[in-house]
């Protein structure tokens, strides 16, 4: 009989270990840019579409505003973004890239290719893994939280 309460039998542990390893490989690449990994994710969201609201970035990165706000403060202090209240809805805060924030995109342009190589996967494996992880995330986020009605 298999003991399911071992590390080798878990899916969570290889995901956790892979996430830590991925972040470790990103670290020196991002240090050259003066960014942490979470800050890089925010910048990716803004390079994709500048002028997003805080809520939109929270949604895109699956973060709550309490987690995102300190990241934005540090990016603003570094001169990469500017936060301002929306003129259309003063409850909304929009995030704009500064010229320096836009220019940083050029410095980061090789990182995705470097990371694809570091993964050691064929393009087909890479694309299949990304697709599987997206499905896994969608499935897990659709689960009711403990104590909630399904």
From the N-terminal CA to the C-terminal CA, the straight-line distance is: 32 Å
Radius of gyration: 18 Å
Proportion of residues in β-strands: 5-15%
The helix tally amounts to: 7
The CATH class assignment of the domain at 35-105 is Mainly Alpha
Helix content: 55-70%
Total strands: the figure is 2
Classified in CATH, the superfamily of the domain at 35-105 is Winged helix-like DNA-binding domain superfamily/Winged helix DNA-binding domain
The order of strands across the largest sheet is 1-2
Major beta sheet summary: 2 strands, antiparallel
What overall geometry do the principal axes of the alpha carbons give?
Answer: globular
- Look up the CATH topology of the domain at 35-105: Arc Repressor Mutant, subunit A
- Gross CATH architecture of the domain at 35-105: Orthogonal Bundle
């Amino acid at each position: 009989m298999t003991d399911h309460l071992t590390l080798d039998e878990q899916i969570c542990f290889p995901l956790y270990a892979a996430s830590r390893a991925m972040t470790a490989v990103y670290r020196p690449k991002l240090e050259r840019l003066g960014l942490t990994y979470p800050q890089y994710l925010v910048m990716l969201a803004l390079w994709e579409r500048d002028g997003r609201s805080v809520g939109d970035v929270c949604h895109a990165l699956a973060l709550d505003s309490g987690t995102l706000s300190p990241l934005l403060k540090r990016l603003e202090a570094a001169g990469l973004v500017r936060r301002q209240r929306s003129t259309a809805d003063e409850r909304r805060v929009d995030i704009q890239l500064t010229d320096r924030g836009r220019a940083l995109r050029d410095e980061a342009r090789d990182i995705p290719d470097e990371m694809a190589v570091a993964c050691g996967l064929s393009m087909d494996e890479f694309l299949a893994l990304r697709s599987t992880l997206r499905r896994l995330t969608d499935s897990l986020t659709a689960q009711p939280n403990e104590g909630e009605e399904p």
